[in-house]
Amino acid sequence: MDFILQQFINGVTVGGIYALIALGYTMVYGVLKLINFAHGDLCILGAFIGLTTLTSGVFAGLSTPVLLVLAFLIAMIVVAVAGTLLDQFAYKPLRKAPRLSAVVSALGASMLIQNGIMLIWSPNVQVFPSNLLPNINWEIGGAHISFVQLLIIVGAFVLMAALYFFVHHTRVGTAIRATAIDQDAARLMGVNVNRVIAMVFIIGPVLGAVGGLFIGLYYRQTYFTMGWSYGLSAFIAAIIGGIGNIPGAMLGGLVLGLFNAFAAGYVSSSWQDAITFALLIGILLVRPTGLLGERVAEKV
């Protein structure tokens, strides 16, 4: 029983990270019907920006909690700018082009960001300092939860709840849902579609930057190709939940995280990728549109 509870905690921790990153994929797909393959690399860019903020010495006089908050804020701002530039130069010129053109552009942008990270920070693994977060563990029913796990779980759920409220209970969120349903009709109703798309390319990368920095703090390392593997896992999570479906991305991330945790515990971590794709295939065979269906918004 202790082992099951421990794997559950581990799964929810990783699942929260997957969910944050998956939200970026699902929001872009919901509005543009585009798979932003560069999203995973933007997330890891956030991890590198956060690590640089924490270790550069520029803010050496600040306390650790303030430094951590500053690292998250700087990472979110830089990655949001990068996401906006990505839309302006890689996707916006191809709005009316065949969909394959945008996919190729996304893959090219992914390679550009990945190699840019390698040139700036080197291809070596970058290690996060061990003294950034308190080394505290709490015992729950025989299992242990660390401070960093609690931080990730609480942070991920707070951000997911905030996004859900924003999309479903604000005017901007209504505009996003309207644009996702029908862009032409949204324009006729006075929605600035280009502004909505720009907003999506800010919100998604901001959540991704937090997810990327969570990855670095949890595993205490990051490297320039990490964005592809975590981006792929988050993309699978979005498909499992229902691509284009915001609650589906949240659910898909948690399901994938839990499934991987128990698979690693009861089978082997070396089989994790194969088991992940087996889960994806199994779910798509039963529900081709994902657990919650492929939808973006409900007509109200």
Automatic annotation (TrEMBL):
Signal peptide residues on this chain, from the entry's feature table: none
Pfam families xrefs: BPD_transp_2
One GO MF term attached to the UniProt entry: L-valine transmembrane transporter activity
Keyword Cell inner membrane: yes
Keywords recorded for this protein, A-Z: Amino-acid transport, Cell inner membrane, Cell membrane, Membrane, Transmembrane, Transmembrane helix, Transport
Membrane as UniProt keyword: yes
Membrane topology: Multi-pass membrane protein
Chief place where the protein resides: membrane
GO terms for cellular component: plasma membrane
GO biological process, alphabetically ordered: D-alanine transmembrane transport; L-alanine transport; L-isoleucine import across plasma membrane
Transmembrane intervals: 12-35, 42-60, 66-86, 98-121, 141-167, 196-219, 274-293
Highest taxon in the source lineage: Bacteria
Localisation: Cell membrane
Family: Belongs to the binding-protein-dependent transport system permease family. LivHM subfamily.
Protein name, per record: Branched-chain amino acid transport system permease protein
Native source species: Castellaniella defragrans (Alcaligenes defragrans)
